[in-house]
Design a protein that fits this description.
By secondary structure, the chain is an alpha/beta fold. A 6-stranded mixed sheet has the order 14-12-11-9-10-21. The termini are far apart. GO terms for molecular function: glucosyltransferase activity. It is found in: Endoplasmic reticulum lumen. InterPro entries: CAP10, O-Glucosyltr/Glycosyltrsf_90.
């Protein structure tokens, strides 16, 4: 019994005393749906790579809020805070399990201009987009630069003429859906085309979220509501904004609605996002299955072929189709049940296989702790050009997958896993997604032949949903409803 107690005491000593400081960074003062702080434990200047258990975190504030501590199981943590009301400041204390203060605690979260901290649905745009980007320390994105460089000038009137004759024409109403958006005096307006334009709610939500936080310049653009990019590469092509691009199209690609939705509703109605993808149960490498896994819809032939290959080589691959829509199930493998996302990381290798377009789950797979195998594909999201094959993921085709999995079993992937983790921290955090959209608006608008001065007659005004949270704005600078109606009627 004494031996057991001594062993437990020694284990607790190692657990609690094996780190002496932490690197802490994130977005606490910036008004985002969820504020967050990354906490990387260190010992003698070296990052720890194993969990040290729950940190002792306390918070004091007059805000109504919810907070949570996420253990990444690799020596790092994320503290997340969602406000439900505005307030002047909040104070955070972070301690190790034995009471050592971390992150230069107490951390006082307060804006330099003494403006309140705003909750997501506080409609308080106090600064212009340029100032917001400086505060957020937004980077420039080569993909966005490359997309916009395709046009020296964007003539929206001419662009609309082309759109009305092609994707917005009556005979195309079932095959395409897109909206003409205008931003005038920081109010959002739209006119949509196509029979199935329900995805406009995601675009509405993205831009109204941005406009609650800052004043955007007057601008207008065409947004594709479908997954497929629309405009083939050609001279004088139309500047369409899309969530996905491809090698043979010229659409301007922005972060997907799935990524943005997971940010806007995190800690509210969404439980799966870039910070929570791993799940609450940790599967260390030595306990993971030494196999590759894929579960998903039948949206590409490669997915079907991988599922059939898994039946021949279950020692290497666990794969299945969770829903048939495009292909006849009787000709392929039987349908299987969907898998909870975190269960993918019970396997050492996860397969990202593009469907009809890019597989939008890739950001969340990169946020896990299993090695990502990605199928070669002409489709891409806004961040793919920053990924390096062989560094952040293992590229594969059907002909090479067996050989690559067998080779992977003999390799040490610690460096790959570190590169994946760093990529997610550097490029796929909530602030990066907002930066991308704001920078798109700023740089795209510079290309316009003429920015709108008032909303077009057929435009529908999109209300900024500002009813969920209790807010007190430092300044009231939004157009009132009467002003909006006058703009729409052409009085202003």
């Amino acid at each position: 019994m004494l031996v057991v107690l001594l062993a437990c005491a020694l284990w607790m000593q190692q657990l609690c005393a094996a780190f002496d400081d932490a690197i802490c960074f994130g977005a606490l003062t910036l008004d985002l749906p969820v504020r967050y702080l990354h906490i990387q434990l260190r010992n003698d200047g070296v990052n720890l790579t194993q969990s040290r258990g729950k940190l002792d975190i306390s918070m004091s504030s007059h805000c109504r809020l919810r907070w949570e501590q996420i253990d990444n199981f690799d020596g790092s943590y994320v503290l997340r805070i969602r406000l439900w009301s505005s307030c002047e400041s909040l104070t955070i204390m972070i301690r190790s399990p034995i009471g050592v203060l971390l992150c230069e605690s107490p951390i006082v979260v307060k804006k330099e201009n003494n403006s309140p901290l705003y909750a997501e649905y506080c409609d308080c745009p106090e600064m212009d987009a340029e100032e917001w980007m400086r505060n957020a320390q937004c980077a420039h994105y080569q993909q966005l630069n490359d997309d916009l460089e395709q046009w020296q000038t964007i003539d929206v009137e001419q662009m609309l003429s082309v759109v009305m004759q092609t994707w917005a024409s009556p005979h195309q109403r079932f095959s395409a859906a897109l909206c003409h958006y205008q931003i005038v005096d920081n109010q959002l307006y739209r006119q949509c085309f196509g029979e199935h334009s329900g995805f406009r709610i995601f675009v509405d939500e993205i831009f109204t979220s941005i406009m609650r936080k800052m004043r955007l310049p007057n601008t207008e653009f065409i947004f594709n509501l479908g997954d497929w990019p629309l405009e083939r590469k050609r001279p004088n092509g139309v500047a369409i904004v899309s969530w996905c691009g491809s090698n043979d199209t010229m659409d301007i690609v922005v972060p997907t609605y799935e990524l943005m939705k997971s940010v806007i509703d995190s800690m509210h109605t969404v439980s799966l996002d870039i910070h929570t993808a791993k799940g609450k149960v940790h599967w260390p490498w030595h306990k993971k299955k030494d196999t590759a896994v894929f579960k998903g819809r039948d949206s590409s032939k490669l997915r079907l072929e991988i599922a059939m290959l898994a039946q021949k080589r279950p020692d290497l691959i666990e794969a299945g189709i969770t829903r048939y829509f495009f292909f006849n199930e009787s000709l392929y493998t039987p349908q299987v049940k969907q898998m909870p996302f975190s269960d993918f990381f019970k396997h050492r290798y996860v397969l990202s296989i593009d469907g009809t377009v890019a597989a939008y789950r890739l950001p969340l797979l990169l946020a896990g702790d299993s090695v990502v195998f990605k199928s070669n594909s002409p489709f891409y999201e806004h961040f793919y050009s920053m990924l390096e094959p062989g560094v952040h993921y293992i590229p594969f085709e059907l002909s090479s997958i067996i050989e690559k999995i067998e080779l992977a079993r003999k390799q040490d992937f610690n460096q790959t896993l570190r590169a994946m983790r760093q990529f997610v921290v550097d490029h796929l955090q909530p602030v990066h997604l907002y930066c991308y959209y704001v920078l798109f608006i700023q740089e795209y608008t510079k290309k316009l032949k003429q920015a709108p001065k008032r909303a077009a007659a057929k435009m529908e005004h999109v209300e900024r949903n500002a009813t969920h949270d209790t807010c007190t704005c430092a300044t009231q600078n939004q157009p009132n409803d009467r002003h909006v109606r006058r703009m729409q009627s052409g009085e202003l």
